[in-house]
Amino acid sequence: MLCENIARAADGALLFAGQSVNALADTYGTPLYLMDEDRIRRNCRMYRAAFRDAFGEDALPLYAGKAASFRQIYRIMAEEGLGIDAVSPGEIGTALSAGFPAEEIYYHGDGKTDADIAYALDRGVGCFIVDNGDELISLSEQAAARSLRQKVLLRITPGIDPHTYHAVNTGAVDVKFGVPVETGQAMEFVRAALGMKSLEVAGLHCHVGSMVFDEDVFLRTIDLMVGFMADVRDELGFVFRELNVGGGYGVRYTDDDPMADIPARIGEVGARLRRRIAEAGLPLPRFLMEPGRSIVADAGMTVYTVCSVKRIPGYKSYVITDGGMTDNPRYCLYGAAYTVLHAAPRGKLRAIFDLAGRCCESGDIIQPAISLPAATCRGDRIAVCTTGAYNFSMASNYNRFGRPPLVMLRGGESYLAVRRETVEDVRALDL
Ligand SMILES: *Cc1c(COP(=O)(O)O)cnc(C)c1O
Question: Do 214 and 165 fall within a single domain?
Fold first, then answer.
């Protein structure tokens, strides 16, 4: 199976985290997001242990909340001892409402408004990751007005193309995030920040992309970042004490994706960092990363009920579900691949279908050309695997469909973490 938490019972029924997918769908209804809490915790512990081994005690993985942001996940992150990265007042407010400590929040974003900055400053957010010079000025003014000395990391763009989808490539020179090293602008950005008395410049940040499998990418990132740290020391006489190289480790969506040995990769990054830092004659910085997908993706599964099976002879066949691009826009956005399983397969004969949603868009396809039992019919349950990252968090109310509930699976039991959005919820803001 794709991941250890997916299995089949003796009669072929699909099990997720040891529980019957059909029974969960009966209890909670569909469409339904399932989240394997034990898997999330296991992934957190894997990161913490790998960080301790590779970089020492003070290294910290930050969970990138944009992958899946809801109150319960922040309680879990607090319990597992991870920091978090947040990109909006909404994510910050959700984390704080769950009791997550403000000091452990790193606040991202390339378009922070004055109001966003004020919101985070007033709540004691531990660190701003400053994306650009405009933000730097607004933040320093607002921190000064509050007599604060705000800790910041400066986001720079090292100029790495991680050879992934264009849409998720954020490390090359001409992307909208951060300040590029190559053009000399990053050095000026650092110089400007160091001149601001209300800011405490702790370190540097970069994020080269997502779904990274290429083992080389983070090693090259380390080379470039340490090179820039040495340049800053030589030119400005300043030594950074934190280095955050972002998120991005890939996960398996289908059997064609490689198995990423993340602890081994992190070990290599640690060795490379120590070597480059020693060569540069710099002190070892506190090391941070921001894994999102690789913490929650394989903990997720989405369950649908089939509404119709439509066969167009000589063309193609569709399995139309009660969900779609509203709960999983990733195929529509960038052709993302998924593994699709029938919850209770019958018969040996299989057929090829496009798995479609119920939105009024021809492009509302969850996954094209998948193999399912030919006997699939209305009322059957279909599961899409590895939907824990960027599904719930990217969900919309297009066509005014309510968003599905999010149910956590823990130790053989289940509980609701986010309830289903009703028609009343969907129109609640309309005056
Ligand atoms: C998206 C993002 C992450 C998380 O990336 P994953 O691929 O989910 O691990 C981390 N940091 C930043 C700045 C991001 O934009």
Answer: yes
- In the reported structure, the alpha carbon of residue 332 is separated from the centroid of ligand 1 by a whole-number distance in angstroms of 20
For residue 210, name the pLDDT band (cuts at 50, 70, 90).
confident
Q: How far is CA 301 from CA 18, 244, 339, 380, in A?
A: 13, 30, 10, 16
Torsion on CA atoms 64, 87, 366, 336, rounded to nearest 10? -60
Judge if 313 and 422 occupy the same domain: yes
Q: Tally the domains of the chain.
A: 2
Question: Could you tell me the residue range of the domain that residue 196 belongs to?
Answer: 108-291
Q: How confident is the model at residue 208 (pLDDT cuts 50, 70, 90)?
A: confident
Q: Residue 292: CB within 6 Å of ligand 1?
A: yes
**Residue 92 confidence (pLDDT):** 98
* Residues 146-163 pLDDT 10s: 999 999 999 999 887 666
Buried residues in 227-265 as b, exposed as e (16+ CB within 10 A) = ebbbebeeeeeeebebbbbbbbbbbbbeeebeebebeeb
The whole model's pTM is what? Answer: 0.96
- Check if 44 is active-site: no
Ligand 1 pocket check for 83: Cβ under 6 Å:
no
Calculate mean pLDDT across residues 69-86: 98
Q: Which of 3, 206, 307, 360 is catalytic?
A: 360
Q: Distance between CA 217 and CA 4 in Å, rounded?
A: 27
Asked whether residue 308 is assigned to any structural domain, the reply reads: yes
Same domain, 384 and 249: no
**Same domain (yes/no): 265, 339:** no
